[in-house]
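TL;DR need structure tokens for one chain.
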Amino acid sequence: MYLVLLGPPGAGKGTQAALLARNQNIVHISTGDMLREAVKAGTELGQEAQQYMDRGELVPDDVVVGITRERLNAPDAHRGFVLDGFPRTAPQAEQLDGILEELDMQLHLIVNLEVPERELIRRMTGRRVCPNCGKTYHLVFHPPRSLGTCDECGTDLVQRDDDKESTVRQRLEVYRKQTEPLVHYYAESGLLLNLEGTGTVDQVYERLEKFLK
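>> reply
TL;DR here they are.
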């Protein structure tokens, strides 16, 4: 099963993709995680990507496409995958089509998570991350036991630059301008499912699982 999850920042793509990967026994491929790992490692690619991510802008296609091509060519991806964070534009989707054709793969479903903007801002600005172990919290939905401190290692939590409200609003504006046309691109394929992304994680996944069954 080859799937793509679409939706604005904060829609819950990563969470739902992880559930799909676990329950369907497929690979969760997150370009966002791969880029952040490159930033943390301080590689040339990571340094280039960080400049765009800190401003809430999209990382250039050549960087993202290169990373994705390598990952999809890995043996574990051939048994099935869910793509989270790629493609983000119609040109990227066209390049993905080319990659999949080369690898003799074909998408089965594109899921578009729909969440109101006010809810997206609330979700993203409340996130806090442990810079030491990487554990993620939320001030409303998943707060640490001790305010501002990681439950696992006791390190002070931080708010990522791309989770600050000014950057969040910029990211949503970028999404509207550059990524929403992607929904129209996939609508023509007949594989697009527009799915309500509000409610609890389990409620959203139940809607998705019901459709898959």
